[in-house]
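Quick start: read one record
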Amino acid sequence: MAQVQSFLDSCTIDPSELRFTVNLLSGEEAGIPREWTQFLFRRFNNTYGTAKEKTLGSALEYSWSIPESDVANQVDFLGSLGSLPTHQHGMQPLCVTAHRVIKLIDCKSGVPWPHQDPSSYSHFQVSGYGEALGRSVVYTRISDRSSMNLFLNFPFEPGDPELPIAVKSVQDKLPFSMSKSHWKYWKLTKAGDKYLGRKMTSPLGV
């Protein structure tokens, strides 16, 4: 966590308030027992109110916003459950999440890069998870297998010599390697009403 905080301190500015949730998957077709889901659904619904719902393939995801003061207790409760059911596609059936919006800066000068606001890209959404062009996000999932995901927006054209420099400055501060295969260049269509994403080679090389 100290290395993650070093990345946030060195490469970002104006982070949003952390937003925490508890996420629960249901779906017998996906290998999650109904009784297990019902027990947890009642527990979280009684504590945090009506859940938000989202369809994820053959499963249904329930999500509850929780205050930061409850995070440690919910993580302890998750650990007390022991082994969690195995989802057929490897998704975590129960997790606590932390979500924070960030703005990337030049790690050397401390100056924010331009166009780091969704309004610069007509608030274009790139997925059903609320990810938008111009908005970088750090997303952490705490479960029996925890993970940290980054959705980073670098405001440079492919081939711009500043792009690999900027990406490397971020990579140098991260405690893990960024993916070499999940890079896209988003370009406004001729009609000017949306953006199309095209795969591109990692600025860090193969």
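Residues 1-179 form one domain.
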